[in-house]
From TrEMBL:
Domain of life: Eukaryota
Residues linked to a glycan: 65, 307, 733, 915
UniProt xrefs under SUPFAM superfamilies: Metalloproteases ('zincins'), catalytic domain (SSF55486)
Binding site for Zn(2+) 1: 378, 382
Entry GO CC: plasma membrane
Annotated positions binding chloride: 220, 504
Provenance organism: Scophthalmus maximus
Alphabetic keyword roster: Carboxypeptidase, Disulfide bond, Glycoprotein, Hydrolase, Membrane, Metal-binding, Metalloprotease, Protease, Signal, Transmembrane, Transmembrane helix, Zinc
Leader peptide range in chain numbering: 1-20
Family named by the database record: Belongs to the peptidase M2 family.
Disulfides per UniProt: 347-365, 520-532, 930-948
Pfam families per the UniProt record, alphabetical: Peptidase_M2
UniProt GO BP: proteolysis
Name the record gives this protein: Angiotensin-converting enzyme
Amino acid sequence: MDRSLWSMLLLLPAIGLSVALPASWLPGDYQNTSDGALQFLTDYNSTAEEVLFDSVSASWKYNTNITDHNSMLQVNAALEEQAFSEAWGMKAKQVFTPELINSLKPTEKNLMVKIKTLGPANLPQEERKEYNTILSTMDNIYSTAKVHPQPNISWSLEPHLTDIMANSRSYKKLLYVWEGWHNASGVPLKDHYPRFVELSNNASQADGFADTGADWRSWYETKTFEQDLEKLYQTIEPLYKNLHAFVRRQLYNQYGPKYINLKGPIPAHLLGNMWAQTWNNIYGIMIPFPDKPNLDVTDEMVKQGYNATHMFRVAEEFFTSLGLLEMPQEFWDESMLEKPEGREVVCHASAWDFYNRKDFRIKQCTTVTMEQLFTVHHEMGHVQYYLQYKDQPAIGDVLSLSVSTPKHLKTINLLESVTSDPETDINYLLKMALEKIAFLPFGYLIDQWRWGVFSGSTPPDRYNADWWYLRTKYQGICPPTRRTEEQFDPGAKFHIPGNTPYIRYFVSFILQFQLHEKLCEAAKHTGPLHTCDIYRSKEAGAILKKVLQAGSSKPWPEVLLEAIGTNKMDASSLMKYFDPIIKWLEKQNVNETLGWPDFDWVPPVPEGYPEDIDKNTDELDAKKFLDEYNSTAEGVWNAYTEASWKYNTDINEGNKQAMLEKNLEMAGHTLKFGQKARQYDSTDFQDGSVKRIIKKLSDIERAALPSAQLEEYNTLLSNMETKYSVAEVCRDNGTCHPLDPDLQKIMAESRDYDELLFAWKGWRDAAGKVLRQDYKRYVELANQAAKINGHPDNGAFWRSLYETPTFEEDLESLWKELEPLYQNVHAYVRRALYKKYGPKYINLKAPIPAHLLGNMWAQTWSGIMDLAMPYPHATQVDATPAMVEQGWNAIKMFQESDKFFTSLGLLPMPQEFWNKSMLEKPSDGRQVVCHASAWDFYNRKDFRIKQCTVVTMDDLITVHHEMGHVQYFLQYKDQPVSFRDGANPGFHEAIGDVLALSVSTPKHLQSIGLLDKVESNAESDINFLMSMALDKIAFLPFGYLMDQWRWKVFDGRIPPTEYSKEWWNLRMKYQGLSPPVARTEDDFDPGAKFHIPANVPYVRYFVSFIIQFQFHKALCEAAKHVGPLHTCDIYTSKEAGKLLGDVMKLGSSKPWPEAMTMITGQPKMSAQPLMQYFQPLIQWLEAENNKNNDIRGWPEYAWKPSSAVEDKTSKVDFLGMSVDSPAAMAGQWILLVIGLVLLVATILLAYKYRKSRKPEKSLSTMELKQKD
């Protein structure tokens, strides 16, 4: 048995098994005469006022303070009222004959019939108690039901659940609230309702009705009542279906095809109201003309300091302006106008008549909103009508039609002005339709269901099924989850457990427009009916007074006939009121399905439900949030970029601190908006761009760190970059060399093994070693940030930027495809170095010493093209001499690059670029970060390059590469900030490089005057392709392994104790390189590469070196190029420029495979265009390496080059001691002398003993040889 019902039954003994009425409440003796009847009615009326006051008072006490004690008092009072009704009803039946009753005046006859109708008082005493107890129990269950999102949190219907249903646009949260309420309030009622129906029918049948439904319908005193209602509904159904179709389409735009079927019913939880009875709460996503005024004066009410009492005073003034009555003092003293703290109440708004002709109250949990202001007028209309629980509550609503007009709201100073134009009218009428028209089928079907229940056509085992059949049939809505007979969803609506007939509201919504039209005529209104306000019209008030004073003393058709001239309900006034919106909706719905032919459709349950219900799924709200983010991010990012630029172009402590400060501000901004972004569940957003940006913003990277760790992280990065940028290698004579240009020049131009070693080892000692401890801590913090953002480690975060689950496998597959080509280049170059340095330093079966390849990191080998030239006497493509001879400088190089872009129809560099870029290394003594980089200042006009440019062909290529970045910035500058990036990190690098593929062709260099002639022969082609291969192919394994190392560092596969060992294992495995001198864990060679201390992911360059050839091939096809791919120059091709520009404009707004498809026609990374580009060289290398019997690979991987000649500035290891070279030399001489002495001694001993033995080499001699 239900706990609440059990507690009620326990209280029954206190009530007693029979109710003894006071003698003064019992009827006397009366004669069956007219005088006797009149005396009876007079006595009944005076006694009933006393009885009903007690009964209503007990009910009020319970409704405003729900306790078991007050429930007992309410049940007891109800039993007393029913005993009173029974006593007087039975007396009337016994004394007054039908003939006498029929002879009475209509008013008296009507009252006598009512007295004789006993209702529940017909029931035997015990059943009567059971009936009252069930009602009280059901009331209690409904009013105390809660939804518990967490064990220690409870949401009541008012205000929590109602607010969520009204304001949330989260599909999951709305579903959780809807399902939670229906289960919490409805399910517990299921066991009580069938018995209630049985007892209620017994009571009604005792009064001569077929069932309770017939009893309720009799109140309307119209034989054709049901038929009249159906006819009315058929009249308004087309309007409802048009409104339904329009709303369904807007919800489709909000929630998408997954949750909205454009031919099906609408899920019931999406309409802004727990019961989908009115839809005005979702007006915000329905507004026909958003730029036109929308009527909501809530903010103005709050601003003016409205409270509940003032709202009721405003309503009272409306009534008095019509000549109607003020509220009596008791109303203000006794009403419950706000939800009280600390006690359970029935929040459902209601008006109460205490039957003593002076005490009238309202019970309402009022909040200060425009909608509640209308409700206040509605309830005060009841009070004016003295109609608690009467059948036609149209009066309050007809007044609300005036109160809600812009004209009236302006009159009472809640609107500054009234705008009157067709679009504003449509906005207003749609809002009214969402309240009035949306309600009609609901108002009709609730009692359709109850009438079926009372008649038996809907048995208990079909309660829920028939409920949802009617809701779908009339409303076109469906449950958001499958509902079964385990549930009792009708019980989730107050009027079902509250036993309040509901068809009155349907009748009201028809009659109010009939009354409104009549009152507007009396008020001399001119213009459309929806603009009428009867405020202050005494003429309209006089008509209302007629209706009010009639009460229920006359049949309502008579009251209606006297008031408005017709005794029929008619929807024509309603249709007239809504005529403009009817026509507008019909136009909007030309291609929509009216109705819901997919009758049985229900939406799927969201993934992960009921998790994440607190996340926001309102896409419109997300768009507003992103607008705010975009506008603020531009300012914050610009400030940081300016500070970073200042530091990078003038390294000093002040600039460093300023940059760190701006970095923290940017992190704060990222954190603030990232946390907001995480509040959204974008799973079902329709706009892919919004989903992408929300996802990007939700990953707040380093900003996720606690403030102390964030500051430490930023300082670490700044310190590492500073140490790298100011590092120098110094000679014994005090001369110090920075990386750029000195050491770079040595590595590229020197062919002295020792000098190269000096630069190579010196740079690693100066820039690498010093970073080791910093880097270890950086890894810890970077991983901490990644984990807070939901990634296993920082490497996983970096890989996530490619949005490709198989990214690592795809890269390995590409590398395996390219490895044979790389090994052929490696074998050929190793042979060339062997010719230069000989077997002492080069082993033709071993890795190449890493310092001999013309570049500090051996990442590109074009610096040794002079050693690896296939045909030295054929044409060589090197524009450097011509550039120097023609007096080129940095500006000229950038102007030429700009000219290349504009020749393609792309954008020229803006003036800010030329004014603010740093295109050469400053000569004023400033220390700068020379590493070439392109900068976007996030204000859509300021773009710069920082480069210590030197006049060489290599730097000319770099200029085009960096300017490619800036072109990308220019093309996507109007995208949201979050999309101002490459389609993936590799795209940004590839755009600049793909242009360099054209720039570096002999054809292009000739066209810009840097080459006298273009030789087209096999030898020149092989020379050209070899120079490209030393740049592009040589780079591939380095571009791949840099992040292979970091990914393993981040995920722990490479511990700090093996940083150096695993770095060189990877360089050996992929590049076939070895360190020229022994490396230990005291060294940190990865740190000697800019991207490691600067925290720049590197696999983007590997990706770039693949996809740039895909782009190149696609652009050459667009440019109608004919001939081998390596000879293509897209210069001046507008077609190629458009293809490239269109892809760049996307930024990162689309997944990169879509951008790839735009430019290449297919979505995958492919090595085939690269292989096609180098095909002539591939064939040549195969033949050349076969001719020389060169091994591909480095099977003798443990071989080390001779290390006898060491760096002149460094110490050498001698017999386990670190000593200067001169000391080591002296030691060697000493050992040599000792060795000779020992040798002579050995010979003498051998001779002395005359033994035939071979002389053994001394240990010292072996040691000396090992030192050679």
